[in-house]
Amino acid sequence: MTAWTLHPDRALPADPVTRPIAREIYEAVQDLPIVSMHGHVDVTAFADDEPFPDPAQLLVVPDHYLTRMLVSQGAQLPELGVGPVDGPGFESDPREIFRRFCAGWKHFRGTPTRYWMEHELVEIFGVTVRPSAETADQIYDQIAETLADPTFRPRALLDRFGIEIIGTTDPAWSTLDEHARLAADLPGRVLPTFRPDPLLHPARATWQGDLERLATASGIATDTYAGYLAALRERRAAFVAAGGLATDHGHLSADTTPLPDDVASSLFEKALRGSSDGSGISTAEESAFSAHMLFQMAAMSVEDGLVMQFHPGVLRDHDPAVAATFGPDKGYDIPVVTEFAHGLRPVLEAFGNSASFRMIAFTVDEDVYSRELAPLAGVYPALRLGAPWWFLDAPDAMRRFREAATETAGFSNMSGFVDDTRAFCSIPARHDLARRVDAGYLARLVAEHRLDLDEAVDTAADLAYHLPKLAYAAR
Amino acid sequence: MTAWTLHPDRALPADPVTRPIAREIYEAVQDLPIVSMHGHVDVTAFADDEPFPDPAQLLVVPDHYLTRMLVSQGAQLPELGVGPVDGPGFESDPREIFRRFCAGWKHFRGTPTRYWMEHELVEIFGVTVRPSAETADQIYDQIAETLADPTFRPRALLDRFGIEIIGTTDPAWSTLDEHARLAADLPGRVLPTFRPDPLLHPARATWQGDLERLATASGIATDTYAGYLAALRERRAAFVAAGGLATDHGHLSADTTPLPDDVASSLFEKALRGSSDGSGISTAEESAFSAHMLFQMAAMSVEDGLVMQFHPGVLRDHDPAVAATFGPDKGYDIPVVTEFAHGLRPVLEAFGNSASFRMIAFTVDEDVYSRELAPLAGVYPALRLGAPWWFLDAPDAMRRFREAATETAGFSNMSGFVDDTRAFCSIPARHDLARRVDAGYLARLVAEHRLDLDEAVDTAADLAYHLPKLAYAAR
Amino acid sequence: MTAWTLHPDRALPADPVTRPIAREIYEAVQDLPIVSMHGHVDVTAFADDEPFPDPAQLLVVPDHYLTRMLVSQGAQLPELGVGPVDGPGFESDPREIFRRFCAGWKHFRGTPTRYWMEHELVEIFGVTVRPSAETADQIYDQIAETLADPTFRPRALLDRFGIEIIGTTDPAWSTLDEHARLAADLPGRVLPTFRPDPLLHPARATWQGDLERLATASGIATDTYAGYLAALRERRAAFVAAGGLATDHGHLSADTTPLPDDVASSLFEKALRGSSDGSGISTAEESAFSAHMLFQMAAMSVEDGLVMQFHPGVLRDHDPAVAATFGPDKGYDIPVVTEFAHGLRPVLEAFGNSASFRMIAFTVDEDVYSRELAPLAGVYPALRLGAPWWFLDAPDAMRRFREAATETAGFSNMSGFVDDTRAFCSIPARHDLARRVDAGYLARLVAEHRLDLDEAVDTAADLAYHLPKLAYAAR
């Protein structure tokens, strides 16, 4: 077998008329810096700048795209190093975990995980053989050796990857201490994102404790609805002060209907009492309250200028037994039908034509691209259509997104490419793939004489770099 | 920069095997006459045959595809010449409006507006430079000069555009006077379409006034449910007498469930009383009543042979403040999930197998093509599947429509191409684009040996010309 | 006109870079045996091995894909040989029926019926002219002559078609006598499939009678809920003993929520009493009961190892008048919105991570591929994503399925190709077409350097042969 390499034209259209145009467009944007405003890399990686542990902990264990596929083919989570919440009982030998991943390489055919991982292994780690049970140890050793090199520490990789700016996701009660250190060392390069989800869902078991964390962090008592709002507002201001540009919201529904203040206040109090006496609030009441709080978040965004990222429509922890044993984010999160036209209406009626507001909406229900999100983003100046998210951040899904949304929303109403990952080393692969897919789409428009080549090159640069900068710019 | 021209192969597939086949199919149909049975060009344009006013009033101000995109990028409607309902306060200099449009040309990349407008500017007005802030005045002058030529008056353009027949959309209470004049001057060429929407939605503020207009036009008192039905029936007969071939219905839902007569009658009376004393009927009651009235319209179609065009699934005036200030049709209309399988069932059970009935169903929720509309049109002889509508009247969306619907419905159960526009000069561009996209789709079937070339050419002529004629032929 | 032939590259991608790769992949799998685990060919065809009657009865009358298209274009079912339930009054001359089909050949352009039928006529029957009113008799005679040949009897065709194994669909109360004969003559080649649908829907008029059939077949009284469950369990065991590998379930909804035993039991009793005294159970109660019974079927599958095939989401007999006159399966079955994420949750929570359970889920609502089914199949080991079903078993729909589902579920979580037809002679055409479409999809991945050629060939063989064998293997 010949050496495993990356083809320079990978992910570009095959047809011989379109490919050279796509290559020309791609080459014009391939080296633009990376703007990575939404992700889940732990801020401590950059703050402490310690070497990454081992190949399995870096590439396999925390990546639920990857572990879920192996589970679907019969692996047990503990065999992949994913431990139960309350104890040991999982594989601790990273080499063994990595072998299981390599032995399952076949199952990733046709998935973006395969594509990204191939890019990472070849481009970052210099691997030259295809993963398999036979090659696992050789690949493991090569990655481990590379990780020992000081030029592969997190901050060095920011440079190597060409990342101009990266956002982390931080709980509302975060002290932002690490970000303070980073602001001193790498000014403007690693920014916090305000994520208040658990605080906006009062039926969750963790709510009461999280409220207390919020009170501690803000110095404002959260035992009244007014105090709760004030504490949230205080934390948002702290994020702004720490360089934050955005908030992030992951709700089951896209509903943003506000409640009258007294109703919201009494739901808050009912939840607070229920949290101690066990009565709680109903699911329907929680849904109404969290929709109301999305509206409040939008209203606060108009005040403080934080861009509101909205990621609704995922039924988390579809198998509650897995969540109880292994915790959240283990691959059992399933998209559901998501309605935006009515759901976003209250926020858009109130703030959709305001230059002080910016919402970026993401979806994993691709039906809404042409039916709802492109028409909404194509008229409301405050709304930008986010890049294909999560399961849709994949070559064919990205192409479908362009084809479904562009004809109604154009390019200027989009966020440009936004990755969303906890797999740090996949970031360059993800951006590179997006640039290739966009180059292919634009090349088809050129080949079909629907766009001129200079326009296509200009648009490719917008999608790769300028639109994300613009979408997340302070209001 | 070289002169701006239209490429002869534009919108045909890029791949070198499929393109020459597509070109051959397209060339066989490109000069067929245009049948434009559904549109919103004002009948007075043809009746009075006055010259079009100026480039901005012709091409920019009334085209909500175009103004909505500029609004989404920060323009204010008044800056684009769109005035508040009750007064002045908007840009009145057409040259200034046209400059704003040209300066925003970039934002239309990838949209059908860009494609159609390029066709219009080059083909109709002989423009040779790309629109931009710099070229705006030059283009404006050239269009203005062209419009002054008597061969560019509306009736002359019917000939220039190759329009064999065009439908207008007229309120049920229209006197049809202009159509009488046109029937004398241009027999069978400009036909009225019966549009009763406001009369079928009793919760609208305008309903009482519209009922009175209906009474005046029909000479039948509309203060009872029986009178209301009789008046509608009288107006339908008047439209038939004036050459009308079709009705048109734009409802939020596709529900067609009939009510018992006494229930319908009492809802009518409740709405009528409520309209004067302010009590009104509920939203749910209005929905039930308007669904009932769709069933009545279908029943009347069986009697009088008018083809029933159905355009459901758009949430109109998503931002009510914009509607209150600027009126309807300003770009704030958003598609919503639309259910046809249950919705159309009452009408199809009753009339779906009748040779006396014809419904053409359109959608802006493209999910229903393969799931519902193609299966329904593929068995009920009375149902035809309409062409991709509104946001979906675009190259990639049209291709998706063919791919999603043809395998189940075939071609014979489709309406062929139907445009839907108030932008008169875009009609030839829209038909030409549809012919190109269909040629591309058919060429792929030929290239994949799924259809013979002679069949493809025959089908292309059906889609462009014969099927629309057939779909709208008197029952 | 030149002779009508099948192009060797039909249904492969047109572009000159991808086609030769597709051809290479296709050629590697074209001769693999056919595994046809889900279908509706009558078991008596194989048990009795009588010659097929005539061309119309073989190819036209029982094929609702075909008759529905002719009905949509104005034919009456009786003209096509489809008789009313209770009597004569339909065309009995097969030649006349065949003429009507050939005269309507144009209407099938672009549909899979056209593609399959062309394959059958040319490849199986040696037809060399395109069907039309003029050629109908010539084609009829040629087919009739072929059918008279003993090598065209059903069992001989199993060999000719390369069918290694074929499943039939049998009511739960089937004696399985024919299968006993076949097990002796053709061991392991024709297998029964347990289909209990009518027994799980207590509001159907036939329910009481079917319960009695179940009691007779099982020898267990079905007048209590416990007896009913025991009788179902007994029949499942009989199917297992007869070589059955799977069950099959066609429900309107994908809901699988179990009820408490006492609630299920009392609904059963209410239905049983209602069935005699006319009171019955409500539609909502029936829905709850049939969802509960799906859960019971899954639980029994864990016990007995039968693979659970699930085909929800079709509104049967959309026009009840047609069903009353002509019976079910006459082309008036329409897909509806189908929700799987919540619907399957109870069964997946209970058994989704069990190695003893296997469900294969099919859909005619293609929206759920990327949103729900691929994410579910991509994590739960017990769930496999079925091949595109019914209206979606068509070239472009199959391609959309691959593009929508593969990036999230990979190939290993799919069933591979599964046909679903009562048209025996279409089986080789359907498998051949699926192999071609998959070769085209895989070739694109190769041409885009997203997959290596050896991987593509290996995957094509999985999809065509190994995955179906594996998906239906005994647990």
UniProtKB/TrEMBL annotation, chains A, B, C:
Pathway: Carbohydrate metabolism; pentose and glucuronate interconversion
EC numbers on record: 5.3.1.12
Domain of life: Bacteria
GO MF term (any one): glucuronate isomerase activity
Catalytic activity line of the entry: D-glucuronate = D-fructuronate
Key word Kinase present: no
Alphabetized UniProt keyword annotations: Isomerase
Pfam families per record: UxaC (PF02614)
Family to which the UniProt record says this protein belongs: Belongs to the metallo-dependent hydrolases superfamily. Uronate isomerase family.
Name the record gives this protein: Uronate isomerase
Source organism of this protein record: Promicromonospora alba
Organism lineage: Bacteria, Bacillati, Actinomycetota, Actinomycetes, Micrococcales
